Amino acid sequence: GSVMEKVLQRRSMRMRNMQRAWQESPEGRTMLEFRKSLPSFKDKERLLQAIARNQVIVVSGETGCGKTTQLPQYILESEIESGRGAFCNIICTQPRRISAMAVSERVSAERGEPLGETVGFKVRLEGMRGKNTHLLFCTSGILLRRLLSDRNLNGVTHVFVDEIHERGMNEDFLIIVLKELLPRRPDLRLILMSATLNAELFSNYYGGAPTIHIPGFTHPVKAHFLEDVLEITGYKLTSFNQVDDYGQEKTWKTQKQLMPRKRKNQITTLVEDALTKSNFESYNSRTRDSLSSWMPDCIGFNLIEAVLCHICRKERPGAVLVFLTGWDDIRSLSDQIKAHPLLGDPNRVLLLMCHGSMATAEQRLIFERAPPNIRKIVLATNMAEASITINDVVFVVDCGKAKETTYDALNNTPCLLPSWISQASARQRRGRAGRLLPGECYHLYPKCVYDAFAEYQLPELLRTPLNSLCLQIKSLQVDSIAEFLSAALQAPESLAVQNAIGFLKMIGALNEKENLTDLGKLLSILPVDPKLGKMLIMGAIFRCFDPILTIVSGLSVRDPFLLPQDKKDLALSAKLRFSAKDYSDHMALVRAFEGWKDAEREGSAYEFCWRNFLSAQTLQAIHSLRKQFNYILKEAGLVHDDSALNNKLSHNQSLVRAIICSGLFPGIASVVHRETSMSFKTMDDGQVSLYANSVNSRFPTIPYPWLVFGEKVKVNAVLIRDSTGVPDSSLILFGGALSTGVQVGHLKMLDGYIDFFMDPNLADSYVKLKGELDKLLQR
Ligand code: ADP
Ligand code: MG
């Protein structure tokens, strides 16, 4: 063969020698013993054969049976053992970055190698892999990105798509793309892995691909529903109005302080219904909505606390995993727990958190065992449901809800609400308690509520806006987006697709013929939402890169401004201090970030965060994202090495405002002043309100005719999160087609222009840069 072939052969020999040496070492043997104890090991040969004989197979098995860490490893090992190690190239996708990182670290450890050698990982803006990497764990988003530039996945021998049962948008998307790719790559092997038993759905999608089920082994887990939980904890819940009526039949007695007054009646009825009705038929999917409000968080928290106390006092050793709806809940509950005499005692309880955006060092702690006599309690989002396995968990507390985004295509509005999980999720959560020993699961809802849960959750593709997705589809050189998406396992509504296409046209990413513009091409390589990508590009072109970089990084991480329930007002006034008279949450973010950098230089970052209710962790994350975006834009040739040049106009407030507008448009609301109040109206005549933690909600009036915002979310009303006041001129310049359309009459057009060009610096730069901009926006 060629020289290359010889090199690879030599490397394969070396890989084999190293693998054998490890397997024969004492540590290697111990590790192998452990791996042999996993359920998947018994099926190893069967799996390898099936993969050799079929282009596509579907593997299902209980969480923890060894799919993710073992299956790709079996292939790797057998290729290495047969002297072909350097020729194989395995990719295994994960829905979340944290699992890609955790799993690759685990597999490296199982192979006695440092991470980044044979086994590596790659997630958005971060990764560890080298020229010797032959097994790569990455997020599904990363593989999709690779497919954009490498449509045939040249050199890849095996693709594993993991956790497909979750029906994440990227996984559903990957499945379509790979289906189309397979005929062109007959030697490529595709393995779909799923935890629960809807495997035949995927098998059918691939024309009846063989399915292999790994019989799992988990210890039995006893399920306690709310009725039991109340009994165990001695916690009592009942009607306020009619204690007598209920006192006799059932003793759900009152604990007044637990119930918020204004909602008590509503809660009362629903709780009564739920607890006393033996027949739950009336709660069909239509009433599920009203059910979701019957247990407010404050009852939930106190009840969780009571369950945790019960476990700590009465139960055998073992870690506790608590499922909550989101980061906010995790934070509030953790504050509450820390103040508790028993649970807050660090000599008795090790309290940890597990959520999507935590730092790597923190992640590692979750997997470690607690010292003897210390109870490990992990507060988690539904991330810990399937993709992460914490072995020593014996107790699970399940609040029954998850924050789920849904998408209202009719109003083109994403909704983010904690809603009831599916039965599949509830079972999955329960299963987490039986990894090593028989476990206990405390579901904080009655059995009858569980019975009313949907069987499975709706696929993400059907409940999110499709803007980014459609942009990516176009970059695959697909002609018709709609036609492409109609090949999905479950196709999204055509209205949702039309909305996305309309949006991409409006921001100039697609032209009238639905083809990518230059801007669109650029946006498709930036790993952020197209809106934010556009803002970054504009910030670079207009030489006010620094503040925009901070804003975009902040919007893609999360809000660094903390809002502790009991100190809301203090926290808000702290935020206001950063906002001078800017009427802008985005500007407040920029100032807070800059203040933090200054404080850091002076060694008082901790104090600064504490005083201003800022999350140091989030600011740190923003800091590293900034660096990464900066790097990408530099690579794309939009940012110069000289930072002074990039930031020539960073201090020009009206320019920064205009750039924010250019990115967030058409997220815009007009400010309607009334005598004593203000209201806000969107382009489509919808009414929106401000989030309580927006600086703009603190002013009686706003001296700008418009507010631009990143996101509107339907919670109870339609709320807009972060917003910035902008003058007419911003809209004229960056308001896309709309500025020449309906709204023109509304604008004091001339004034706007004059304002704008009065600033000689700005006018000068605008004229100079207009050419650059035009080129970029060329259709
Ligand atoms: P599956 O993908 O089928 O859910 P995994 O391959 O993730 O299962 O995990 C298999 C087993 O490997 C787990 O049950 C656990 O015992 C062990 N394991 C996985 N990750 C780790 C880790 N980070 N540390 C220690 N053990 C782990
Ligand atoms: Mg797994």
UniProtKB/TrEMBL annotation:
Q: What is its EC number?
A: 3.6.4.13
What chemistry does it catalyse, as a reaction equation? ATP + H2O = ADP + phosphate + H(+)
The answer to whether the entry has keyword Hydrolase is yes
- Which residues belong to any copy of the Helicase C-terminal domain? 303-477
**Per UniProt, which keywords does this protein have?**
ATP-binding, Helicase, Hydrolase, Nucleotide-binding
Does Hydrolase appear among the keywords?
yes
* Leading EC class: hydrolase
Domain Helicase ATP-binding: from-to ranges: 48-215
| Similarity field | Belongs to the DExH box helicase family.
Q: What is this protein identified as? A: RNA helicase
This chain's source organism reads Camelina sativa (False flax)
Included range, full protein: 222 to 1000 of 1161
